[in-house]
């Protein structure tokens, strides 16, 4: 159980670190097409409508990734216990 707790904590920390680093890299390498945006701006509406929350999607992503990693962590242990009991 102790190894699972260490695994879970390190997974959450590494997942968060990689999410932040990928966001930084994508932000640094992004180059907008100013001419295209300027041409599209004439068709934009006058009002802005906000939908959803982007912060909650990160937690859903983290939860699904954590659940998948947990299942992946326990599956090999299940098969190795099963194969050792047959011998």
TrEMBL record:
Task: State which residue ranges cross the membrane.
Answer: 7-30, 57-75
Entry keywords, A to Z: Membrane, Transmembrane, Transmembrane helix
Source superkingdom? Bacteria
Q: What is this protein called?
A: ABC-type Fe3+ transport system permease subunit
Native organism: Virgibacillus natechei
